[in-house]
Automatic annotation (TrEMBL):
It comes from Halanaerobium saccharolyticum. The lineage of its organism: Bacteria, Bacillati, Bacillota, Clostridia, Halanaerobiales. This is YbbR-like protein.
Length: 129
């Protein structure tokens, strides 16, 4: 009959604990201790216009879409293009060319890596009455 001594039992237990600690510390995506997997993604998103004052109209914009690069942790779900909003705030514009930063609204689980381009030129004119 096969019998383990007390020292052999401790050695096997120590080996199992060491393997589990190594797996946890290595931070591999296939590790059973990870709750979510880190993902990096890029999305081509249409740029919205917000807060255009009354009496003004947009003549032209240098770009209509932006590439949004994000980093997020997926908890059994994926982010889609619909979860991301890119916009420019035209609150304090004047007639002529205005350089505006492209702002991005993301879900709370995502982190913005970059926006390409980071800004755009908007040509504003007064509405003819």
């Amino acid at each position: 009959m096969f019998s383990l001594t007390e020292n052999k039992k401790r050695l096997i237990l120590a080996f199992v604990i060491a393997v589990l600690l190594w797996g946890y510390a290595s931070n591999q995506t296939a590790n059973i201790f990870n709750y979510g997997e880190e993902q990096a993604a890029s999305f081509l998103v249409d740029i919205e216009v917000r807060n255009l004052p009354e009496g003004y109209q947009i003549e032209s914009m240098s770009v209509e879409r932006a590439v949004i690069r994000i980093d997020y942790v997926s908890y059994f779900s994926q982010l889609s293009r619909d979860d991301i909003t890119a916009y420019v705030d035209l609150r304090n514009v004047k007639p002529g060319d205005n350089m505006k930063i492209i702002e991005v609204k993301l879900p709370s689980s995502a982190r913005l890596i970059g926006v390409d381009p980071g800004y755009l030129l908007v040509n504003i004119a007064r509405e003819d009455e």
